[in-house]
Amino acid sequence: LARERGLSKLDVVTSQFHVFRAGIVIRRCYHGDLQMVGAPQETWKLPWQALNETAKLAYQLVVARAC
Fold first, then answer.
1. Above 90 in pLDDT, residue 10?
2. What are the DSSP calls for 1-39, one per residue?
């Protein structure tokens, strides 16, 4: 989509806990200037989100490596 629209810079807004993994996934296919922005989340959800994101990160790094 970025290529079709001639975009050379993207700002991606996602949950703060998701910034790291989302950046990895997006950088696999997008090679322009990328700014990741983390939106705040409720702190009581952090333990579950940390566990969930860790599992998803492992999957992205080992299994789902394609663009």
1. yes
2. -TTTTT--EEEEEEEGGGHHHHHHHHHTT--SEEEEEEE
Backbone angles phi and psi of 11, in degrees to 5 = -110, 120
Which structure tokens are listed for 27?
């950088």
Residues in the chain: 67
What values do phi and psi take at 50, rounded to 5?
-65, -45
d(CA 58, CA 67): 16
Specify the pLDDT at position 67: 87
Amino acid identity at 11: D
DSSP 45: G
pLDDT digits (tens, 9 = 90+) for 27-38: 999 999 999 999
